[in-house]
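Thread: "does anyone have the structure for this chain?"

Original post by V.I.:
We have the sequence but no experimental structure in hand. Need at least a predicted one for the grant figures.
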Amino acid sequence: MCDRERGWCEVPKVRTWQLAAGAAVVGLTLSAGVVAAAGPWDSGQRKAEKQRVAAHGPTGGAHHEAPAPKRPAPAPSAASVLEALGGPRTVSAEDPRADGLAGTLGPLLADSGLGPAPAVCVVDLTTGERLYGRRAETPMVPASTVKIATAAAALTALGPDHRIPTTVVAAPDADTITLVGGGDATLDRVRLAELADLTASALRDRAEGAKKGGKAATVRLVYDGSLYQGPVLHPIGPNDNIAPVTALMVGQGRLDDRTRGPATRSADPAGEAARVFREQLSERGIRTSPPAPGRAAAEAVPLAQVLSEPLSSVVERMLTDSDNDIAESLARQTAVATGDKASFAGAERAVTKQLRRLQVPLAGTRFADGSGLDRRDKVSAALLTTVLARAADAAHPELRPILTGLPVAGFSGTLEDRYSDTSAGTGLVRAKTGTLTGINSLAGTVVAPGGRLLGFAFLAADTPSPYEAQPALDRLAAALVS
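Reply from O.Q.:
Generated one for you, tokens below.
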């Protein structure tokens, strides 16, 4: 997420150094282990993390391009971690209630980098009990931490196994095919090429059935992005941080080779996707007219279809990378699933209704968008921690991707470069970041002494700069570890 006013960005970077196997296993999979006792969610742990851990197993050699860094601080043992949400546990002298979070967090909250009045809420995710709060119910601009709420609404409405389709349909009595967008903001050229393969094959089968010698004639190509309604431009206007919100796009409308982070976007992502699709069909010997916008005929029959990854994986990607395009797509998918108009206003109604189903505190809230780029968004720290508590609840296994998608401090996503190797929070803090000019936030989970899993939300306004606010937020989260 970025703020176009001054360019503060949350852009994940790819590290080239090799993590030691023991630290990688603990740091990257820790929160997954913590919540394992709460319910079935095998697909919840991010595949990228599993692959990364496997890739960095003990190979007997360091990375050749750079010296190996210091290993992150060791994490608690697996036994205490698994106990956090599962088995019985006694309150020890290290328990946060015994220590007193007010004494721990109070001095840190006085940091000028957090602005004049930060909001805080800390809860025990096993019991849902609030352990500490300050202005916890005060609605504040959440920036990108609102994506936690967007994810919860989408998973509640659609379920973690839902897949978003992109379809080609054909008019029964005419040589017209229509590329129909289903709202998949993760659609890339590779999957669009798969759709072109399927479409070309189906068109050849049709030609054979019509006794045309197996050679498809020129077909008319139409593209349909009508699933989403209302304004396509985000209220912040044209911006490298988000494409126009359309139900059909490929590569998120990016006009360069970057696949993540800010990039120049097409003003017409749907038309651009159709042009790419036409090129791919041409490569497969299918001649089409230049694509034109339109709607699929009511009597059109399905010709080919590709599906997104399961919603659980899409949510994880959205949270880890702070992906604005996916976030807006998920807000509209929530609207489609609940019968609301798939627009900014309809998505706000739909998200609010789904969060009400989860019984989270909604007083004073506003979900003007799904990504957090809109400064009219308002949520409380209590809302965010309540959503995290629902995600850890055995009664809501469908929400597990919210926990497993959170970036890992010092390891992944928008937290990869936010914690040093010596920080107490490295590998133990998992949190969604939020950054706009003068707005900084952090909300997620941390393994505290005794193996207790805590949920936290820190919201700060009128901050002097992210270079002061972000370290202050990181110190707060790390303090919950020790």
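V.I.: this helps a lot. Residues 13-96 have pLDDT under 50 and may be disordered.
O.Q.: and The chain has 14 helices and twelve strands.
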